[in-house]
Amino acid sequence: MPDSFLFDLGQLSSKPLFVSETGWPSQAADSTTNEALQAAYFTNLQRTVDYAKNQGEQIEVVNYLGMIDAPVQTCDMIEQILPQDTWWCSLGIRNRDGTPKLAYAAMKARSQNLASGH
Question: What are the sequence ranges of the domains in the chain?
Fold first, then answer.
């Protein structure tokens, strides 16, 4: 997405933006995504947020969907009912066992930069 995406969107209203339930899967049944692409999505999203804020746009919240991948039981049900939507099971920035994915490292680095004032 272009750096100006959220800024351009914000120009359509005088109200602050609230980015809700955004995310990117780290796996898909058709192998079109992976952890590196998930981390790149997060990094690109942050770049668009920074651009919009630097242009004076108000962004109240960015709510990233999924701290941890969905439980096995949930994914088994999705696979039976909607096999094309199994990508939903890998939206977390941590694997089911809690181990971090590349997107987690990107988010953690971002948080540390914000905390240190960068």
Answer: 5-113
